Records
---
Amino acid sequence: MIDTKLMPKNILGSDLACCCTSPMTGFYRDGFCRTDQHDEGRHVVCAIMTDSFLEFSRSRGNDLSTPRPEYRFPGLKAGDKWCLCALRWREAYEAGVAPTVLPDCTHERALQYISLDALLAFSRVSDQ
């Protein structure tokens, strides 16, 4: 469990909300798009998967659809929420296939890689 006194901030400046626990996401597999120096990919963008994004990611060498139990990775399908690497989301954005972002669940560190305007243009309010 995360110590809420040390809760990171989201791109809106409030406490980071949980992205998803089914499937369990996040670099630390705790449901949150948290990051630190161990997370080289910066898994900080909470997004709702689409078929077009999953195919795009596979075409770039990162198959997110195939389960990988050795990494506690269930394989994703359209509609699943997942903490994406900031640069992959930006790459998808530039290619016109960016998935929807949940701003309250997206870590503020995403702003080091992606403009707030771009994230908000592809955002919706979390239903959590």
---
Amino acid sequence: MDGVIYREYQPNDFDMLSEIIKITWNHGKYYSYGVSCRVADAYLRFCLSEQTFAQVAEVNEKTVGIIIGNNFLKRHFHFNYFLYAMYDIICLSMSKEGRNAWRFFRNIDKIYKELLSLQIKKYDGELSFFVVHPLYRNFGIGNELYNRFYNYAKINKINNFYVFTDTSCNYNFYEKRNMKKCGEKVKEVTNVNCHEKISFFMYENISNQI
């Protein structure tokens, strides 16, 4: 796709990225507008609070995707993002809908932590968040963002990293990049009045692939 600019994340990208999260996760199906905004904002801020790598794709001055990664060898904590995320959680806790919404995401986080706890090896990094606006997929933007993180990992000697995903996402993307599925859990999750059985995965990129 012509005219795509890849660059480091800037604070003025935040609102557009939060909107992409709401669209991608179909928040409007489950939550009121206010709650969906708080959930998306909190999640993105938590991801940004630990990042050592964050690059976005921009088309016509519009942010259309982001990839976020953590280098565990050079950990860095962005306290301001964490504080704002905690404020979002406090606001969500003031309503039953908000509490239920955040509880749903906390339960998914617990599943991912279970998958990680079952691994024997120690990882050097994590691909913690990766999303492209639905209207801008299949143009190679996701490939380029992933390649940029991959090159970052190679330059910084991140010999192995992992990513969490599930059947609601395009997890085949990682298999096509020779990442190995190293964990899987099938869970029935409840979101508002919706009950779904979802497979949650952990993929890894090991040292001889970098």
---
Amino acid sequence: MIAVGVSGLLTTVVLPPMIGLFESLGADLPLATKFVVAVASFIIDNKFYILAALIGFPIVVAVCGNAPSVRYIIDRLLLHIPLVGQAILRTNLFHFCRTSAMLLEAGMQIPNALAICIRTVANSRIRAALTEGEMRLSRGQTFSQAMAATGVFHSSSIEALVVGEQIGDLESALKNIAGHYERTSTERMDSLVSMIEPALTVVIGLGVGLIAVSIISPMYSLPGSLP
């Protein structure tokens, strides 16, 4: 945000007067300078439209995002983003398994606990899959079979649920699965941040560098254009 603000000030406040000076002296403007000037001119000429778009776009996204069908599509697309999708999946499953374990330990029956835990899942795509598992559980399938049918749990998690059912300790199995998803989710988020940080640094450096070059370059051609 700081880089965008600085770039905006340079292109709309600092650069235009300098370009006017260079043009009045007949200096030949480099291609980078002409590009930045064109962008700055577009922003200045359409500032009210751009401001309205910046204000209106988040409002439109928020309103449309409240529609269940649109929310489902967005949540489904998020799950397919590399690294981000797995982090979202594991975070939602972590909360689901941890809450399920707590409710079962408190003595609640599996169908009732499952119905409550499904409502705590933020991602509507995962919530729909778990709702399908709830329906399968009501038809007589075991908890592990119902969760396997959802397609959101990893095979190792399903195996842990099967073992938990066999030894009569489903709560511990859910706790272990929740711990696993918590650790892996944290690791994936850390790796995602480690990838984003250098990418942002490069983008910011290129943007600010382009503006700096567009301001400094005409100064080198200015002496040759003077009489």
---
Amino acid sequence: MLKDIYKSAKSRMQGAVNVLEEDLAGIRTGRANPALVERIAVEYYGTMVPLQQLASISVPEPRSLLIRPFDSSALNAITKAIQASDLGIMPTNDGKNVRINLPILTEERREELVRMVHHRVEEGRVAVRNIRRDIIRELKEYEQEKLISEDECERGEKEIQKITDEYIEILETIGNHKEKEILEE
């Protein structure tokens, strides 16, 4: 029973790690990356659709993205959605494709992005701690229902804390890696 609880905790905490990785992929660094724009919601025939479902996104040069819509009628909607996003970049529309040239990040913008990374990592830590709290509550309920002994409950709590510490360390590592990417020129 405890092994199932540990397995559940690990899979839920891994979910928090995956969410953080997806969030951080959308934060721009000095290099162009398709993940920067692929989740931008574009209004397409009255429905909000992620950009990656409407177009192919490539990186022809280190500081530029090329977006080729599958349907040319979506070109203006894609351009508007990118302009409305919080990326702070201006796309150019040549009638067939949308090009995005990423300017060099200013020191001030880098610091702002690093703060954003710290905030997202903290949200991940909170999510992992909430999972720990839920699992420990579950363990205590099992103990009250006499499904596990008091010793097993204590062992379980220690193991859950160990798992929590591992996942918080993973979140920190991911955050530090992203911070280094942002600070590189």
